[in-house]
Write a structure and sequence with these properties.
This protein is α+β, with helices and mostly antiparallel strands. The protein folds into 3 domains: 206 residues, D-Maltodextrin-Binding Protein, domain 2 (3-Layer(aba) Sandwich), CATH 3.40.190; 133 residues, no CATH class; 329 residues, no CATH class. The chain has 24 helices and 31 strands. Keywords: Signal. This is Lipoprotein.
Length: 780
């Protein structure tokens, strides 16, 4: 169910503008101290500086505050909101900023165009247009205000990276070089002792250490180093794939004798490098400077690599950014402002930032209650409104003038929305379902030699039964407060295509297109694809949990079940256990599952479905990781935050079995009707499988294992030549194949704005794109 932006505020009467204030409390004496309280363990640990900063919001915050970067996005002003008219009066102002870089030179049409500043124009909100080119008058797009709570401020200076020509040049470029502001920034230890000057090779070394995480990079560059089982440090191809996809000359990039950081394309090829720039310098920590005492010039990569690995265990606790990590303990990370950081001698920013952790997490309700009262006593600085109870929310809203209420935007471009999928090829002999269920749901059949008949698997009756079974309930009503998202795809991944006729930017924008619902039936002995109707709100919980087309689904399921028993000697029931992961199941959630369980019995008393609430990790392992359930655990993260990377990874991930099943069934006319886009993609790969092995899943599994890198390149080439419509069709078919599950996690907030309450003396700009820059928080 979609929520209107700021809908909760419509419940009570407001004066036109939010008065930003909060009751006076005494616990945090220093206004320049900001305290977070987290209900999880310290995940930064001892190797946080080597971890990808997209692993968690906590790691991202610490990384952005303590790591030396070349560029960043600077933010100013907390949004001013008119809640009466539901508009933004004055948004957070954003601009790209040089941090340690002094200039960037872009190669375009054999010309070198240098940008050497980050100036922006003055902003005038009162005038809709100005004749002065140095004044920016934002166009109001919602009444007397703005729809979005942030806005990028341009520059009329042609040498500024905030001038529109900068990104235009990157979009058609042969590469770029970054120069460092030499002799301006120091490495210091956590006792504020200066160590040495920051150098361009410190950033190059950070890139090299991230490349060393990639097994394929190490193989391609003949770098044999001592590795550990830590996948985050030695089994991450993200950066290598990013550079390969953009055809970057890695040898030039890793030239430690160069005075600039050189990102050039192979063979001087002109490419769109805008996304590469953003991924490398803004959205990730791939290019963060790495503290070191290694002599880097005139040294081979293998020698530098071996010294780098030693540095992992004997790290230098040096910093060259806004904050240093003063303390790092299981229960606390404390940051202190770097007094030497260049040109940052402000006295209204944060001096100290504390991240408090729970070594043993509390139940959600208990934690929400704890932080609410801690906030009221000024023990913590920030309060996540969504985590509060209804009573606590109402208490804030009824006294809203005393609180500094703002918004943060939830952005997910990296992590899967739900890590549970349909298990396409489970252990048929030892599963949490009986033989009758396997015959109906999967098309299980054995040949005379007692071997599994793979040709019968997913026959048209099984396809219809599975689709009907998965659509019995109105899944949207499992969580009435959010929008149903039946996909593993992160909601904010970009749709990649130069000719986007649909005017979509992210997958979330295409919500109505991607999630058009349908189900399968058998009509006249043929597969029929039916469109699901939208569900109207009913009076009772049971009626709300029924699918809109429940009677048609019931009739078709019954027909298949009766047909099965007419052709079978078995009188046994049709049994299956559906695992649902709920660490803390509420009474309402349990009630909903019980109702759905009875819906199956209402359809047919022989259809006995049980829901197993998985409450701990031992049960999680048993039900989701042992290949015994109709659901399974399936996880990966994206190397690039776009549809290309999601489609490629989901199809080629061995665990999902999409590649195996679609390859196995590529000539099946039912699959060709239901999954035409997936079939077309698989056929384009021209798999070289001997005829006598084409009916064996293991043949395709082995082929995938032996040819994965080649298959990845072929799929990326295919996608580059595909329209946005084709990409959306592929994602829709992937969703239909693996994501139609009973789960409380298949939901998102389409608006993506969450209320946050700050102590009254903070001015907190809204975080853009999930980038939470603590250094931009100001004190009134």
């Amino acid at each position: 169910m979609k929520k209107k932006f700021l809908a909760l505020f419509g419940l009570i009467s407001f004066s036109p503008f939010l008065v930003v204030a909060c009751q006076k409390n005494d616990f945090i004496k220093d206004k320049r101290t900001f305290v977070f309280k987290n209900n999880f363990a310290n995940d930064w640990g001892s190797l946080g500086f080597l971890l990808p900063n997209y692993l968690s919001e906590n790691i991202n915050k610490i990384n952005l505050a303590t790591s030396a970067k070349l560029f960043r996005i600077e933010s100013n002003n907390q949004p001013e909101i008119d809640f009466r008219d539901n508009i933004i009066l004055k948004p957070t102002e954003l601009n790209y900023s040089f941090e340690n870089a002094s200039s960037i030179s872009v190669i375009k049409d054999n010309n070198l165009i240098t940008y050497d500043n980050d100036e922006i124009n003055l902003v005038d909100y009162d005038t809709q247009s100005s004749n002065n080119p140095e004044i920016f008058s934002p166009k109001k797009d919602k009444g007397n205000g703005f729809n979005n709570p942030y806005i990028f401020i341009p520059s009329s200076n042609e040498k500024s990276i905030n001038n529109k020509s900068f990104f235009n040049d990157l979009k058609s470029s042969k590469g770029f070089s970054v120069s460092l502001s030499e002799n301006e920034n120091f490495w210091i230890d956590n006792n504020f002792n200066k160590k040495r000057m920051l150098k361009i090779n410190d950033f190059r070394l950070g890139i090299f250490r991230n490349l060393l995480k990639s097994p394929r990079f190490r193989k391609d560059f003949n770098i044999d180093i001592k590795t550990t089982n830590n996948a985050l440090l030695f089994d991450d191809d993200s950066l290598y794939f990013l550079l390969k996809q953009n055809e970057i000359d890695i040898n030039k990039l890793l030239n430690f004798n160069s005075d600039t950081l050189d990102i050039k394309t192979l063979n001087n090829k002109t490419l769109d490098l805008e996304n590469l720039f953003l991924r490398l310098f803004i959205q990730t920590n791939f290019s963060d400077a790495l503290a070191n005492n290694i002599e880097l010039k005139n040294k081979s990569l293998i020698n530098i690599a071996n010294e780098l690995i030693k540095l992992d265990q004997n790290q230098l606790n040096w910093f060259a950014s806004y904050y240093v990590i003063k303390q790092n303990k299981p229960e606390l990370i404390s940051l202190q402002k770097n007094p030497f950081y260049k040109n940052k001698d402000t006295f209204n920013d944060l001096e100290k930032i504390d991240f408090q952790y729970s070594t043993i997490p509390l139940p959600n309700e208990a934690f929400a209650n704890q932080i609410f009262y801690a906030f009221k006593q000024n023990i913590i600085s920030e309060l996540d409104f969504n985590k509060l109870s209804l009573i606590e929310k109402e208490q804030i809203l009824n006294d809203y003038e005393k609180y500094n209420i703002s918004y943060e935007r939830e952005v997910n471009r990296t992590f899967l929305n739900n890590k549970i999928i349909l298990n396409l090829l489970p252990d048929f002999e030892n599963g949490f379902f009986n033989k009758n269920f396997a015959i109906l749901y999967y098309g299980l059949k054995y040949k005379s030699d007692n071997q599994l008949d793979w040709n019968n698997l997913y026959n048209k009756k099984a396809l219809a039964f599975q689709s009907l079974f998965n659509n019995v309930a109105n899944l949207a009503f499992l969580n009435e407060d959010k929008a149903l998202w039946l996909s593993q795809a992160p909601k904010d991944i970009y749709l990649k295509n130069n000719q986007n006729r649909l005017n979509y930017n992210t997958l979330k924008d295409a919500y109505e297109n991607v999630f058009k619902k349908n189900y399968l039936t058998i009509e006249n002995n043929e597969i029929s694809i039916k469109t699901k109707h939208n569900k109207k709100i009913e009076a009772s919980l049971k009626e709300n949990l029924k699918a809109a087309d429940f009677e048609d689904i019931k009739n078709n399921l019954n027909a298949l079940i009766n047909d099965f028993y007419n052709q079978s000697d078995s009188k046994d029931d049709i049994k299956a256990t559906i695992p649902v992961f709920l660490f803390e199941a509420t009474n309402q959630q349990i009630q909903k599952l019980d109702i759905i369980k009875n819906l199956f019995l209402e359809i047919n008393p022989k259809l006995k479905v049980d829901f197993k609430i998985v409450k701990n990790y031992e049960e999680f392992n048993l039900y989701f990781k042992q290949n015994k359930s109709i659901y399974k655990f399936n996880d990966f993260s994206l190397n690039s935050p776009d549809t290309f990377d999601f489609i490629k990874n989901e199809i080629l991930l061995e665990n999902s079995n999409i590649f195996t099943l679609i390859s196995l069934k590529q000539n099946d006319e039912n699959f060709q009707r239901i999954f035409p886009s997936l079939i077309a993609l698989i056929k384009s790969l021209q798999l070289e499988i001997p005829n006598e092995q084409k009916n064996e899943p293991k043949s395709y599994k082995n082929y995938l294992f032996s040819n994965k890198f080649e298959l990845e390149n072929k799929i990326l080439t295919y996608l580059k030549n595909s329209s946005v419509e084709k990409q959306l069709s592929l994602i829709k078919e992937i969703n239909q194949l693996i994501s139609q599950i009973y789960s409380f996690d298949n939901f998102i907030n389409l608006n993506s704005f969450d209320k946050v309450v700050y102590q009254n003396h903070f001015i907190k700009p809204i975080s853009y794109d999930g980038l939470y820059y603590l250094q931009d928080i100001k004190i009134k």
